[in-house]
Amino acid sequence: MKAAAQALAALLPVLATVLMVLYGFSATTARGEGARRFFLVLLLALHGALLACTWNLGGVFPLAHPAWILSGVAGALLLLYAITELTTRSAAGGAVAAGLALLLQTASAMVWPAVLPEVARQSSPFFAPHAIGLVFGVAALLLSGAYGLLWLLLWRSLRHGRFGLVFRMVPDLPGLTRMNRRAALFGFIATGIGLNTGIWWAHDAGRQFSYLNPEVLTMVVVWVLFGLLAFAGRLRFMSERRAAWSSALAAALALLALLFAVLPGGIPHGAE
Amino acid sequence: MAGASEIMLVGVSHAGTALAQRERCAVAATALSARCHELRAHTGARECCVISTCNRTEILLAGAPAGAPVLLREKMFDGIEGVHEYTGMEALFHLYRVSAGLESQVLGETQILAQLREAAASARTAGTLGEALAAALEGADKAGRRVRAETAIGEGTLSVARAAIQLALKVTGELSGRQAMVIGCGATGRLAARCLEEAGARKILCVNRTRSSAEELASEMCGTAHTLEELPGLLARADVVVVAVEAPEPVLRAAHFEHFPRRQHPLVLLDISVPRGVDPALREQRDLFLADMDDLETIVRGHRRGRRKAAEDAALILVAEVGKFEQRQALAVLKPRVVALVRRFEEVRAETLSTEAGRGDSARFSEMLTQRLLDEALQALRGGVREEGPGEDLLARYKSHIGES
């Protein structure tokens, strides 16, 4: 089981690379689309298998180690992207989502524990929703950031009269805005659940809790930013361009928060 | 009449000259006739026709002295870069390619046919269209229509207005529920309004210098009519603005956007006017997307690549049509000689018959014989001319003209 988990952790970045190449360069034919779908589903299935392996190995909810958190965010990001592609029938951002998954999965493989860590059993019922909420929240926020980045790239291409690859492959600006808002709304809700259950979990465990903790503070800022983004359509001052900038910025902050959470010694409430 | 050899063409187009320079030598539709007259007098040519569209300004001359191109350059294209000059068969090839839409920004677009007809009509009104140019333009028109009917070049093609609206859709998404505006209610403005309507825009704001033209278009499009004075208030309501005016100065300037309200969606300004109808400085304005004719050039490049095969098919048609033009011209040159020859044969026949008169069957035989000889001679003469049709040589010259080996 341990060997299987390690093999999967090593295989996932390779498959994520293939997926990224397929989204970035394969033709927009039925065959190309079929290949992309196949690899996306395969990656999701393997992520599920890895989750089951680590759960089975540790006997605890498998998000209590940096490697598992990173892998979980990668899997959640691909799942959210797959749902977005299915509902909007647009493969926009596929290459970016696969690229982010590759980045996260590679980082996860790099810190994958050779020896199973000693993980304290989380008896609090708040831990699982807290971890799942934040993993999906961060994944959604990263996806939202990817859409924001694509919006800015397309806008820049249009303004500078460059009608090349970005112009041909990226859908229209309102389409990107819609997908961005959906991802931001989902991220806002999931992060909200994650943050609030985290507070209850801390109280439940009888531990000190501070908003000044860097990862908590960053995540709260990101949560507020994505709240604004999710309801940007009703906010007069939040133009589509500002929303795109904000989501890119907030995604960068979400990555930073994730980094705080997985840095050595920076697992304040994951494995204490 | 001396065929293609006496035709020459001097001009500029989107292929070699930037918009800022093209707009300096553009000729308004209302001034075409006067310009034809003026240029014919200036160059000493027998015939003159001015073609001026968004993408090109070209002067066709026939029977012009050798120094005419230099005079034309000085008069029309002084200081302009990328001026092209063709004579004889090269000029004819170019004209036919223009008519077929092979030289257009949007490959195979159909507007150019109407624009060439308009140019011919203006030259005719000015009295500067003679037999040579009329035949060349008529041949080009026929070739253009054949190319569109017999090749895939016209399938799904875009006019400049349609390409501009496709670009707008990239910024606005669907046009339904968006407020569109057309400034300039001439032929291009009308086409733009139709494209906007096809793309889903409802209740188009039609703006024109004169209210009557705006009202006419508004009634066709179920829109509302406005004059240029109302622009500042209208701009705040619009999501997409197509500017298709014929004016020496931009009709939309930075001043129009000084107190522009903050908006969620970027405003799209599509300037399909030559000279430009929107101040280029507006490109720097935030939350505003401005595209002009030069931008469209880049968009249609991919479209053009996809139509390379159709362009190859079109080449064969164009070569055949140029060959036919040459045949017609050759026949026209031979016509007086043929008439004289027929007359002479008739004389000879009558003479022979008179000498053979009263010889019974022999006379009948002579009549038949001479008639047959006459027919044979004429047949051979006509056939000989036809055989000089388009061949390998003409195709090679065409390929050389377009820069293919």
Describe the structure.
The complex is a heterodimer of chains A (272) and B (405). Chain A is mainly alpha-helical. Chain A has 2 domains: 1-114; 126-272. Chain A has 9 helices and no strands. Chain A has helices at 2-25, 30-58, 66-88, 94-110, 127-159, 165-169, 173-204, 214-230, 240-262. The longest helix of chain A is centred in the middle third of the chain and has 33 residues, at 127-159. Residues 266-272 of chain A have low confidence and may be disordered. Chain B is α/β, with parallel strands linked by helices. Chain B has 2 domains: 3-156 and 307-328, Glutamyl-tRNA reductase, N-terminal domain (Beta Polymerase, domain 2, 2-Layer Sandwich), CATH 3.30.460; 160-299, NAD(P)-binding Rossmann-like Domain (Rossmann fold). Helices cover 52% and strands 12% of the residues of chain B. Chain B has 14 helices and 10 strands. Chain B has a 6-stranded parallel sheet. In chain B, strands 2-3-1-4 form a 4-stranded antiparallel sheet, sandwiched between helices. The radius of gyration of chain B is 27 Å and the shape is elongated. Chain B starts with 6 loop residues before the first strand and ends with a helix. In chain B, 45% of the residues are buried. The mean pLDDT of chain B is 83. Chain A binds chain B through residues 154-155, 158-159, 161-163, 167-168, 172-175, 233, 236-241, and chain B through 167, 169-174, 262-266, 283, 286-287, 289, 291, 294-295, 298-299, 302.
